[in-house]
Design brief:
The protein has ten helices and seven strands. The protein has about 270 residues and is α/β, with parallel strands linked by helices. A hairpin with a 2-residue loop joins strand 2 and strand 3. The chain starts with 6 loop residues before the first helix and ends with a helix.
Length: about 270
């Protein structure tokens, strides 16, 4: 959407309409996981004199928390660079690939990914990507891949009790505690996708509800009821335009502003 219809601008306008002279700062970055958002908050976001910290919660982004090279997990991406990622060892977070692979080494690293020491921590780097003696032969590789496809069970990046979700929960808990130490409330704004709204409109549960159930003790603002009510009248497609449509952002902004007013005033 155009800037006037974006979430941050609409939240700010909605807060002002409710009598709060608010300034909303946007630290969102396209393609980030919760891990990068947390690192960004630590580096830059926490330096500002704010009343409330709000973190977007789009549940399918848990898969990003266990990727190192986005292009391995999502081959169609236009983002070729690597990112840091956390490991979870005995309940403690350990950060790897920081600093990240420098841009001039990206192509060489991807070409020799099987030799990269951190390749074992890329869950999307499954058997089909492994370097074998027959790799240069397209014919042999195709035959082997065809047979392996029937047997391979790739890791589910989005499993409710999988590594990605375990890391996400632990990461958000640390994020929340660090914000709380500054005396500020920490709020998650749930950003349901079209599949959630379609399901709820049809009388079914949110397919991401089991993941949300793991986030106990968090303040979560859920705009789903507003989006569902609007979708029943105007159709689910009216709420989405790649991400949200102007109307979708307006409804999310209204839900968030309603929750923020008492927190900001306090």
């Amino acid at each position: 959407v155009d800037l006037p219809d974006s979430l941050v601008v609409q939240v700010e306008a909605t807060l002002k309409a409710r009598g709060l002279d608010a300034e909303v700062l946007n630290f969102g970055v396209g393609g980030y996981g919760f891990d990068q958002a947390y690192l960004f908050y630590n580096r830059d976001g926490g330096r500002f004199d704010t009343n409330v910290i709000v973190q977007g919660l789009q549940m399918e982004n848990v898969g990003r928390d266990v990727t190192l090279f986005r292009i391995v997990a999502f081959p169609g991406t236009s983002i070729p660079f690597s990112k840091p990622r956390y490991l979870l060892n005995d309940g403690k977070l350990e950060l790897i690939n920081r600093p990240t692979t420098v841009p001039e080494d990206v192509v060489k690293t991807l070409e020799n990914f099987h030799r990269w020491p951190l390749a074992k921590y890329e869950p999307s780097y499954t058997e089909k990507y492994q370097h074998r003696w027959y790799t240069p032969s397209k014919l042999v590789s195709t035959i082997v891949d065809f047979r392996a496809a029937k047997q391979e069970q790739p890791q589910d990046l989005y499993a409710v009790n999988g590594e990605a979700m375990d890391i996400t929960v632990t990461l958000l808990e640390r994020y929340r505690e660090e914000v709380k130490r500054t005396g500020k409330p920490f709020v998650l704004i749930y950003l349901p996708l079209a599949d959630t709204i379609n399901a709820v409109v049809a009388g079914q549960p949110d397919p991401w509800q089991p993941h949300l159930n793991r986030l106990q003790g968090f303040t979560i603002v859920d705009p789903t009821p507003r989006l569902v009510a609007y979708a029943k009248e105007h159709g689910v497609a009216s709420l989405y335009n790649g991400h949200y449509s102007p109307a979708g952002y307006r409804l999310v902004a209204e839900a968030l502003a309603e929750a923020l007013v008492p927190l900001a005033v306090h």
